[in-house]
């Protein structure tokens, strides 16, 4: 069972620079998880070190593996199970993404060229973030297929293929998450209604939950409070993730959101293989694809870009 002994976290204000660093760290960690499947080397699981001035820096081996395109080649080779991706330079990586319909947003402070991407002193992280996010988008496009998601959702919910077929992978993710949340709402309501009187010791824990507080997500940014993600996991893995542990409040506080996200993160660390990691990226929650196919026979591999 996933449980946090409060208080395990401290909510602090973060400046913009810290948020950027957190997002970069989470993105690099995701790339490492795809480059070194099935398991990130232990020495790289923490991709940063702290220098003598107290600043977080990417480890030198990661800097060089980004600058020579090694991590990008390994990630693409693993995603497509094709060794032909091993010998590409940055220009070749960008061409692959473009051919597969992925639009890469160039950073405002530099051009996305081979000359920029090979620099190491200092490394041009804004340029590399554009490439990493392009590979993330490609990964999601390849695995989050609307028709497959409809097939999965139809196993536990009523769906109308004509009116509810997702237009793209983001809509597919939202459909899967929201249908899961609705199903979980019904399960919680059934459990609450079947409990005995409020004075019963067996029902006191149930009274702390309110299924209506599991709000449906309008876009992927709504996942930042952790409620939908936690509800999804408890639907698929009720043995290891109890809905009673989720903070369900209206309105949700920042502390509630962080608590729920840490529950999700702890579950991933304890019950999913290392390649299915869920890194935090600061106060805005998460920035990585999320995989849940290890739970309850869920075999169609839906991912959520968070």
Automatic annotation (TrEMBL):
Residues 210-274 form the CASAMP second calponin-homology domain. One of its GO terms (cellular component) is microtubule minus-end. The gene is Patronin. It comes from the Eukaryota. Residues 13-142 form the CASAMP N-terminal domain. GO terms for molecular function: calmodulin binding; microtubule minus-end binding. This is Patronin. SUPFAM superfamilies: Calponin-homology domain, CH-domain. One of its GO terms (biological process) is cytoplasmic microtubule organization. Pfam families: CAMSAP_CH, CH_CAMSAP2_N. Coiled coil: none annotated.
């Amino acid at each position: 069972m996933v449980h946090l002994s409060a208080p395990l976290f401290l909510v602090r204000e973060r400046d913009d620079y810290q948020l950027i660093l957190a997002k970069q760290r989470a993105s690099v960690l995701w790339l490492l998880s795809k480059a070194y499947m099935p398991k990130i080397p232990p020495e790289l699981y923490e991709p940063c070190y702290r220098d003598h001035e107290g600043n977080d820096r990417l480890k030198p081996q990661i800097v060089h593996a980004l600058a020579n395109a090694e991590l990008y080649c390994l990630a693409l080779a693993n995603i497509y199970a094709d060794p032909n991706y091993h010998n590409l330079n940055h220009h070749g990586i960008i061409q692959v993404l473009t051919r597969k319909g992925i639009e890469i947003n160039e950073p405002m402070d530099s051009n996305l060229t081979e000359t920029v991407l090979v620099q190491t002193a200092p490394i041009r992280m804004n340029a590399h973030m554009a490439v990493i996010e392009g590979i993330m988008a490609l990964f999601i496009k390849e695995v989050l297929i609307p028709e497959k998601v409809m097939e999965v959702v139809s196993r536990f919910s009523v769906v109308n293929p004509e009116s509810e077929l997702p237009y793209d992978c983001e809509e597919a993710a939202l459909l899967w998450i929201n249908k899961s949340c609705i199903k979980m709402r019904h399960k919680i309501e059934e459990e609450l209604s079947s409990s005995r009187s409020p004075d019963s010791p067996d029902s006191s824990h149930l009274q702390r939950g309110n299924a209506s507080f599991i709000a449906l997500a309008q876009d992927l940014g709504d996942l930042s409070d952790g409620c939908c993600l936690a509800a999804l996991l408890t639907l698929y893995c009720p043995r290891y993730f109890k809905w009673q542990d989720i903070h369900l409040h209206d309105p949700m506080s920042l502390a509630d959101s962080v608590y729920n996200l840490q529950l999700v993160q702890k579950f991933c660390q304890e019950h999913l293989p290392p390649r299915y990691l869920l890194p935090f990226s600061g106060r805005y929650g998460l920035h990585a694809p999320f995989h849940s196919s290890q739970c309850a026979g869920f075999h169609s591999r839906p991912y959520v870009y968070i």
